[in-house]
């Protein structure tokens, strides 16, 4: 294969064969094709796009570029992916619900970067909890409890890691076939039969409009279907943070309240909706699936799975029964309402950036974070508030980042005289 010929082919808008994509992507992963040629090719893809077949082949080539998890012996496996949001602790609630429903979650999760959180960081709010399990233990735990969560192995879809880094510095990140193939390559390599996607749309999300979100969801569902998996996507609002807490320990607390059936409505409804998708993918009637999913939050069965899971990976299960003992930074500050009326907007991106400023997130991979800091929404969009009343409460450590966080939150808050129209959380479904 002649690389300049392949670049020219894409530059002129033609479709690559699978063998050509292997030559480009595997050649690059092995270090045989240089950055400058792949940079040119990525830009050609950015400008010319890819057909659905080509996107699916690119995804498979990336998925097969490294280790692939074999979950073949586990019953009814499900993976879940969120395209990233603020206050999104859904995985902490949904995965033990799925386990309680008789499905198996043997999943790799990520850490947070910039304003978006990550499940592994949240779980590390439990002292001693580890995201590293040898493969045999990972599979055994998934079989016994129905739930095992580990950090991303370095050998999973290495082609994606390398391509993503290059996209980041060549202005080719925001390209639909490249995003869809990047996300799905990791999901395919992770081995689950069913994948539930939560595609976030709005101010705090990668996809700003419903139209873009739908296109991404369709592309990912199409890739999964072509690869023989069951993939279902739900499009959900991410203009405002999900639930009332943002920041690692605070989010774990809120997840536990939700597992007890005492969570905020938006978060509870989203977890139920995603669980219904997972059960429906295994052929269950939707009305029955919904009733069964809700029951796991009432009867304590999801909470019990979560406690067992935390303990199995080295955390203190007693904290699940006493979430108030999770470390939350002792400093408190509040953002007050500038007027009487209704909260119109609490911008998710501002809240995410505020948590980052307080030390609860990282700008670069590998940086340590403070699990105890965060932001609590005392009022959510649509709720009434009086002038001078607290809308947001910050938990900070010795004032670190407090003024920056406060300025971001004030900037992201709008209060209006009339009640805003209620915003639906679940915007669409694609399967
Ligand atoms: N997340 C990914 O994993 N890849 C992308 O390209 C974008 C978001």
UniProtKB/TrEMBL annotation:
Belongs to the thymidine/pyrimidine-nucleoside phosphorylase family. NCBIfam families: PRK05820.1, Y_phosphoryl. GO terms for molecular function: 1,4-alpha-oligoglucan phosphorylase activity; thymidine phosphorylase activity. SMART domains: PYNP_C (SM00941). Homodimer. One of its GO terms (biological process) is pyrimidine nucleobase metabolic process. This is Pyrimidine-nucleoside phosphorylase. Coiled coil: none annotated. Keywords: Glycosyltransferase, Transferase. GO terms for cellular component: cytosol. Residues 342-416 form the Pyrimidine nucleoside phosphorylase C-terminal domain. It comes from the Bacteria.
